Amino acid sequence: MNTPSTKDIIEIGNSKYAVVVAVAKRARALSELKKEEEDYRLSSMVTDALEEMLNGKIIVD
User: Fold this and answer.
1) Average pLDDT, stretch 8-28?
2) Which residues, including other chains, have CB under 8 Å from residue 15's CB and lie 6 or more apart?
């Protein structure tokens, strides 16, 4: 994943705080799904959640 600019991230939601909360919630959901796997890492869940948000799979209110 290329590092997205802060501007790109903030444009997705109404505020940077809403974006952070949305990514955190999705990362938590992903971690619950993948918790049993051996290569489980929370940091990769945050990266996955951020990628989903940038690809339009997560809608930020």
Assistant:
1) 85
2) none
Which bin fits 56, alpha (ψ -120 to 50), beta or left (φ > 0)? left
DSSP string for 18-61: HHHHHHHHHHHHHHHHHTTSTT--HHHHHHHHHHHHHTTSS---
* Distances 33 to 19, 24, 42, 46, 47 between C-alpha atoms, Å: 21, 14, 12, 13, 15
Q: Residue range 19-31: average pLDDT?
A: 90
The residue to which tokens 């909360």 are assigned: 21
Alpha-carbon distances of 29 from 32, 43, 47, 50, rounded to whole Å: 5, 13, 13, 13
Confidence of residue 25 (pLDDT cuts 50, 70, 90): very high
